[in-house]
Structures are given as C-alpha cells and as structure tokens.
C-alpha cells in the first residue's frame, strides 16, 4: 500500500510539465517528488525495447558491482548524454526544465546509469546519499538532483528504492566502502530511521522519482522472479562546477530538446558524445576534460 501524503504528481502527454510552488515545497520538504507517467507508455516501451536488443550498444558497456552481501548489480554508466535515445530522454524539456526549477538554476548532465537487478540474483544498494561520495569529486555544494525512471515495475517484491523522507535536511553523512559501494555511517542511519519515515517507492514503468542528492536511499536484493531495471539521470547545477578533474563531467552546457524528440529519435546505437565508465576496463576516452558544448 502506498504511504500516505506522498508528493505525487502526474505528467499529461502533450502538455508541458509545470513546476508549481506546491511541487517545489514538496520537493524541499520531503527530499523527493514522484511524477507518474513521466515517460509515456510509448516512450518507456521504446526505451525498454531498445535496451533489450542483443545488439544494444548501450548495454554492451555494462559491468557488475558487488553489493557486499554476495550478489551483484549490473550497471551501465556514462557521462554526457549524447544523441541516442537515452540522450534524448536525458535532454528533454520535461526532465531538464523540471530539475532546473526544483534545484534553482541551470543544470548540466553529470552522468546517467542503468541499474539492472535480475530475478533471484540482483543485489542490494546500501543506505547512502549520492552527495556522500560526489562530495569527494570536488563538488562543493549539494546542488545536485537525480531522476529515476522505472523501466520495469518496481515494488517491494523485486527490490524497489527505499527512502527516508526528509533525510536530505541532515546534511552530508560520512560514507565508507561496503563491497563495491559507498555506504553511509550505519549508526547515523539507525538514528535517522527512528525519527524519519521509511518509504518504499513503488513505481510502474514510466514513472519518475526526482530526488535531492542528500536524500538517504537504499534498495533490497531482488528475490523475485521479476527483473527490475531503472535508468537514473543525475544533474549538477551549472554554478556548482567541480573544483577538480574527476571521472564525472565538469560543467558542459546542456542543449535541451523537445519532448517529441524521444519518439522521433531513430538513433539507438550511435554513442558518439557519450563517455562510458567501466571500473573493470581502461577507459582512456573518459579522462576528464571539458569538451565544450556536448549535445
């Protein structure tokens, strides 16, 4: 059953997604909002079908990450959105403009990842804040925002995201290593759980969760017979350019596209402009640089 008073909004196909004062208030009070059908049914089917193809160039860049409890999560991670289908989603107005209105200024694409939890084998994510480790990349302020798109149905049974409502107001918590992941100070998390509501964010395909970089979140292993795939696009405010070179993008102006560009896109596998990151491979193309305007 869905938690009470969740900050839930609805995207209506063919109309702009207007960020109201109430939406902003909900975002800053809770640390997140949910937008139902942020990707339309046709858009999420197109995305899913593209990624499921054996020849998918994007999925060919996937790698495994240990969860610290004997299981793996499969990830695909890239800087710069590019011009393929995933790039159109990363750059479309309903996503970029909404993030800019909520975080309070121009944003650029920090990175995107596809998280793949396979049936019966998919691993967990430990409690963490994204800024808990992005801080180490020379990002001075917690002015980052992420959008999680549900590619499959996500619920308690297959390891949906869990959040502590309002935990972004705690500020950054110290993080350490858990398996291949960064995990928040667990004693601090235990105390937070006593005073903050834990919410299982259940989503249907196409739903979007937009959340602050200091929101504490985690997810369980997938012990179900259903897979759980998500795409998470992360944006940094333009005036929060990292102070040092690192493995994610520094400020690069983002050229937005219309929402129609998603369904009009015919480019599924030309990955020019994208810089993939795979810790198990040498990625000379991912060496930090500022290439100027990247589409």
Quick overview:
InterPro entries: Phytyl_CoA_dOase-like. It holds the Pfam family PhyH. This protein has 295 residues and is of the alpha+beta class.
Q: What is the radius of gyration?
A: 18 Å
CATH class (first level) name: Mainly Beta
Major sheet details: 9 strands, mixed
Count, helices: 7
Helix- and strand-based class? alpha+beta
Return the string of H and E elements.
Answer: EHEHEEHHEEHEEEEHEEEEHE
> What is CATH's topology name?
Jelly Rolls
Mean pLDDT: 91
Percent of residues in β-strands: 25-35%
Cofactor: Fe cation
InterPro entries: Phytyl_CoA_dOase-like
Pfam family, one: PhyH
Protein name: Phytanoyl-CoA dioxygenase family protein
Q: Secondary structure elements and their pairing?
A:
Elements: E1 8-10, H1 21-30, E2 32-36, H2 41-52, E3 63-66, E4 72-79, H3 85-91, H4 93-103, E5 107-117, E6 125-128, H5 130-134, E7 144-150, E8 161-164, E9 175-178, E10 181-184, H6 186-195, E11 198-201, E12 208-212, E13 217-219, E14 228-237, H7 261-264, E15 275-277
Parallel strand pairs: 1-2
Antiparallel strand pairs: 2-12, 3-4, 4-5, 4-15, 5-14, 6-13, 7-12, 7-14, 8-11, 8-13, 9-10
Pfam families: PhyH (PF05721)
InterPro entries: Phytyl_CoA_dOase-like
Organism: Clavelina lepadiformis (Light-bulb sea squirt)
